[in-house]
Design brief:
Length: 396
Amino acid sequence: MLAQKADSLEAQIAETPAYPVARPAHAKTRHRGVIASFAALVLLPLAAAVFYLFAVAEDQYASTAGFTVRSQESSGANELLGGLASFAGNTTASDSDILYEFIQSQEMAEAVNARVDLRAHYSQYWPTDWAFSIWPDATLEELVWFWHRVVRISYDSGSGLTEVRVTAFDRDTARAVSRAIVDESQIRINALNEQARADAMRYAEADLMEAVERLKLARQELTRFRTRTRIVDPEADIQGRMGVMNNLQQQLAEALIEYDLLAGTVSPGDVRLKQGQQQIEVIRDRINIERQTFASSNTDTGGVGEDYPSLISEFERLTVDREFAEETYRAALTALEVARDDAARQSRYLATYITPTLAEEAEYPRRYVLSALAGLFLLLGWSIGVLIYYSIRDRS
């Protein structure tokens, strides 16, 4: 049985066609091209970069400074309002935001360059160390571009903390540039303070001048009223006239009583009755005249040319205007005093939580990191190029 199966298997093998054996693999022209491209595009540039970083590039020292903008005002309410403003979408730039942009500006580069000659320091190794140096005849715009390379800013908008790292070819220059940045930032914060104080004082003084003019106008109107009516206080004047009226009413009552007593004891044609009657009529006429002066504009009757209700209404309006002007004046004067007190102290200041450091060893350039990154990007670029080449070759 086994012999039959073996014979059948040998017969099948004999009937199967025989194929030629594959030749040994060997490199072709395209393979040599890929290897040559790897050597030319990856190994040689990487070797050049490593040689430059370790043999040509100069050591650089770093100096770090950290600061934030603080306020002497109570921070509890400000923090609460700041939290609410974050939900409402506050768009007002803070002092720290302004300072962050100022450090990267051309004005800061010019100010630091006036203290530390940046061109002279960063061009001392030109053109040997061309990658980390600037050319001596660089323009201001080119200096600002290089400024962004040597000054790195880390800013946390939530806490307002700002950290600046400066690199230079020697440790003293790095710390000098870092100190100059802190000093110029303090000067800018002081300038913002001065502007805020000047605005507050100007607004307070303008409000005070307006309140003074309003008070002067109110008093002038009250003076014109008194000059026109020859009445200092209508209420006091009317009280005096009411006293006269009461006196006349009392005299009239006494005259009537005397007349009635006299009429009961003398004859009707007595002269004293006639005199008593004349006295009564005179008192009644005077009472009528006094009553007319309260609501009459006729000066012939003893009035002031205007009725008393109108005079009292006008006097009360002028008095209210004067009192309001006086209250406004006192409020403006208080606001001016508050603004002057606020201007007498520095409401914002730069709090440095990391003073500019002095490095002991050179940390830059980071040669190993840069070499690894250079090799990685060169390898990625070469791989993409090879894939593109084979893709085009397969399609063609």
